[in-house]
Specification:
about 120 residues; alpha+beta; GMP Synthetase, Chain A, domain 3; two-stranded antiparallel ribbon; 3 helices; 5 strands; about 30% helix; elongated
Length: about 120
């Protein structure tokens, strides 16, 4: 199985992406739409939410209820992503199982896995 996205840019730095029946725009400058790193951070946290829910169930915490994640992406001097931090709040009290839930969520989150240093894009130009 493969995931497919069709991306088109007619001018400038804005790109329209066709993802199945959905369309999203990303603007590298951030002027007309979220920029590329903001889109990556949003995808990361959006993937982390279900990973947290499954991890909490698997680690006997139960239903987390509402989950809120504030994401911070620190940039280096070249404006490249240097680090990512999640500030997570859940309706349910995770208690002393927080580390176990986080460890399992890291294992489950596909975007977290894709951000490992050893995985790079195969580029054909």
């Amino acid at each position: 199985m493969a995931k497919e996205v069709h991306s088109t840019s007619t001018e400038g730095y804005s790109t329209t992406n066709q993802i199945r029946d959905f369309e999203t725009t990303i603007d590298a400058t951030g002027e007309d739409a979220p920029d590329t790193l903001e889109a990556l951070l949003a995808a990361y946290s959006s993937c982390y939410v279900p990973a947290l829910r499954v991890a909490a169930e698997q680690r006997d915490v139960g239903d987390l209820g509402e989950i809120s994640i504030d994401v911070t992406g620190e940039l280096n001097d070249d404006d490249k992503l240097e680090s990512v931090a999640f500030d997570v709040e859940t309706e349910a009290d995770v208690g002393d199982k927080a580390d176990d839930v986080i460890e399992r969520a890291n294992e489950l989150c596909k975007v977290h896995d894709a951000l490992k240093e050893s995985l790079g894009a195969e580029v054909n130009l």
